[in-house]
Amino acid sequence: MVKPKNIRHMLRNEKHWNPFSDQYDAAKVDQDLNKYSETLKENPEVADQDDQLALNIVENGPIFNIIFKQIYDYMRDAVERTKAHPEQIMKFLISLGNHDTILINKTLDEKIQQDNSDGIKIEEVSGIQIESRDGRTQVNVVGAFEMQVDLLNNLLNYLRYFLNTRKLHDNYDEDHLFRIAAYLYTSSNLLVLVKDSYDRITWEDGSIREFPENELHLVFNKQNYLKLLKVGQHRIDRNVLSTIMETQTIYSKRLDFKALINLKRKKACLSEVLVDSRGFVSIRVTSTGDYPFNDEMLNGLATIVSFYPHIHLEELKGLERLTIRDILSLYSDLLVLAKALRESLLNVEDPQSGKEMKRLFIRIKKKELLSYLQSVTLFSKSQIESFLSIIEFDLYNIDKKIRINLWTKPLIRTRDVYFLLLSSLQAPNYLQLIDEWLESAKYSLDERGKALEKVMKEDLQKYLKGKGKYAIIPEKQKFYANKRDFEEIDLIISMEKMIFIAEIKNIKYPMEARDFHNGYKRLKEGANQVKRKRDFLIRNRSCFDSELQGIDGKNIHVAVITNYPHFTGMEIDGVPVIDYLALQSYMNKGEIKDYKVHINDSDEPEMEVMNTVRLWSNMDEFYERFEAYLRQPTIVKNLIKDVILKLEKISLDKASTQMFMQVASHKTPIPIS
C-alpha cells in the first residue's frame, strides 16, 4: 500500500488547512482527518509518529484563523466601503513604514553614542535593544527593522488580492485612507508575529501544548534545535562584522585593493537628494577628484568573503555579463541613495494627516534611478536594467503565487515608478540577497555545492600539509568497485590514523520557516548519502586500500559539511552537521579567537584579540578530539552555554486565549538604556 500523506504534510500543503488563508475550511479539515483515521484503522502500520504533535496544531487552527480574519476582513471591507484602489492604501502603508524607520534610526544613533565610551564587542552591535513601539518590551534593533519589513510583506501581499476588484477609483478622502492604513499597520503587528510563530512550528516540526485557562505554548520538538540556531546566527553576525573591520583596514592601506573595488565606478558622488511634497525623489550627482568611499560595497564584499568564498567572479548567465561583484556594486549605490533619503528626512515633523504623510510615499521614476546609476558607475544602460530586473517586483504581476518579498526585491514597481521602503534598504542581508541573485542567474544549489567542494579541497590540501605522515585528498569524485558498483563521494581525507568522509551541501540562507525546513531536509539527504557511501567504502575496502594508504585499523568519521553555521552541532540520523568555517578552524591552525572592536568617529575601527582557545596541540590530540569536535565544535560548545530557552508572549493581554512562543535568547542580553 502507498503510504498516505501524514497530518503535517496536509497541514503544510493543503490551502484549506491553513488558518492564514481565505480558503481555510475547518469542516473540510475534519472530513480529511476522518478519512485519514479510517485509513489508519485498516492499516495501522502506516501511522506516523509525528501525527499527534501535528494534530495539536490542527485542533487550534480556528483560534489562529480568528486573528487572520480580523485583519483580512477589515481590509476587504475597507476596500469595498471606500472603493479606494488598494494601491493607494499601499502607499500610505509604505509611508508609515518609512516614518518608523526614521524614528528607529534616530533612537539607534542616540543609543550608540551614549554607550560606546569603552569600545563594543563585535556581537554587541547586532544585540542593541530599544523600546518597542507599544512600550511593552525591549526589542532587538535589528529585529525592529525586520519586523517592519515582514509586516509590509504580509500586508502588501494580502492587498494584492483586491487589485482586480471592479469599480475601484483613485478619488478618496486622504485622512480617511490614512486612518485605515494606520489601523492595518498597528494592528497587524500581532498578525505577523502569530503567523510567523505558527509557520515555524508547522514547518520546523514543532507542536502546541495546551494548559488550563486557555493557555497555549508553541514549542519545538528537536532537542537543542533553537539553541543551535541562535548560536549559528550569532556566529554569522560575528564573522561578518569581523571581516568587515578587516576589509575596511585593507581598503585604507592597500592601493591595489582600493583600485579593484573601484574598477567599475566613476569619480562622482551623490551630492543632493530632494523629496517633494508628493514623495517623488530627485537626485544631483557631482564629479569628484577621487572615488568616494562606499562602505556598503565593502560590507557586501566582506559578507561574500565570509560565507561565499567559493563563488568566483565569472559572468552570470542571462544578466548582461554582470558578476556578483558588479551586482553588489550597483546595489551599494542604491543603498547610498536610501541612506541619503533617510538623512534628508530626519527632521520631518510627525505627520498628523494624510496630506502630510504624502511626503513619505517615497518613490522614484525609473528614468531618474537609471540616470543616477549611470552617473556613478561605468555600467551600460542595459546592464543596469538587467540589475533592476532582479531587485524589482511588479505590483501588477498576475501570478499571485509569486509573493512580494521586500528582503530580496526591495523595489515595488508600478508602471515606471518604484516605491521605496527604507527599512528594506537598510542593513541588508547580503547572504540572502546573494542566494537570490545566483538563483536569478540559474546558478543552482548543486552548482554552488560543487564550487564549495572545489575550494574546500584546495584549502584542506594547504591546511593539512605537514600534519602527520600524510594527508590524501583524492581529486576524483567517482569511486568504482566495478563498472556497475560505484559511488560519488564529495570529500575523502585519509590520514595516518583516520579517514574522514563527508557529503558537502550548499544551502540557502534561511530567513523564513520554510527556508529552515528546506535546509534541514537537504542536510538530512546528505546524512543518508554519507552513511551509504561510508558503507560502500568499507564493503569494498580492498578496492581502495592502496589509494588511501590503508583503511583497516583507522577511525572512520562521517559528517555533512555545509556553508552556513545554523545547523552546526546538530546530528541528523546519527550524522554530525558542521559548517566549513568551524571545520576550517580545526584543520588549519587548530584555534579560535574572540575579538573586541573599538569604533570611533575619527579613526578606522580597531580589533583587539580578547581570547585564544587551542583546539589541539599535537597530532595525537588532533586525531583523538576530531570526532567530538565534529559533533559539537568548541565554538558551539562555548557559546551555547550562554543561550537559554524561554517563552515569549505573542498574544494581547485581553485575548481570550493566551499564546506563548518558545524562543532562544542569550542569558545576558545587551540592553542599552
Number of helices: 22
User: How big is the Rg?
Assistant: 27 Å
Molecular shape: globular
Which strand order do you get reading across the main beta sheet? Answer: 12-15-16-17-19-18
Structural class label: alpha+beta
Protein name: NERD domain-containing protein
Organism: Paenibacillus hemerocallicola
Tell me what you see in this structure:
- With 673 residues, the chain is of the alpha+beta class.
- It is globular and about 80 Å long.
- The termini are far apart.
- The longest helix is centred in the first third of the chain and has 30 residues, at 86-115.
- Helix 5 (86-115) packs antiparallel against helix 7, helix 5 (86-115) packs across helix 8 and helix 8 (174-203) packs parallel to helix 18.
- The protein folds into three domains: 7-221, no CATH class; 254-441, no CATH class; 445-645.
- 48% of the residues lie in helices and 18% in strands.
- The chain contains 22 helices and 23 strands.
List the defining traits of the structure above:
four-stranded mixed β-sheet; NERD domain-containing protein; alpha+beta; 3 domains; globular; six-stranded mixed β-sheet; 23 strands; 48% helix; 673 residues
List the helices and strands and how they pair.
Elements (H helix, E strand, L loop, with lengths): L6 H7 L12 H17 L8 H9 L1 H22 L3 H30 L4 E2 H4 L3 E3 L6 E3 H20 L13 H30 L2 E6 L3 E6 L4 H29 L1 H7 L6 E8 L5 E7 L7 H13 L16 H21 L9 H4 L5 E3 H11 L4 H9 L2 E3 L16 E4 L2 E4 L9 H11 L4 H19 L7 E2 L5 E3 L5 E3 L2 E5 L2 E8 L7 H27 L1 H4 L10 E8 L8 E2 L2 E5 H8 L3 E8 L7 E9 L4 H13 L2 H7 L2 E7 L8 E9 L7
Parallel strand pairs: 5-23, 9-10, 16-17, 17-19
Antiparallel strand pairs: 1-20, 2-3, 4-5, 6-7, 8-11, 10-11, 12-15, 13-14, 15-16, 18-19, 20-21, 22-23
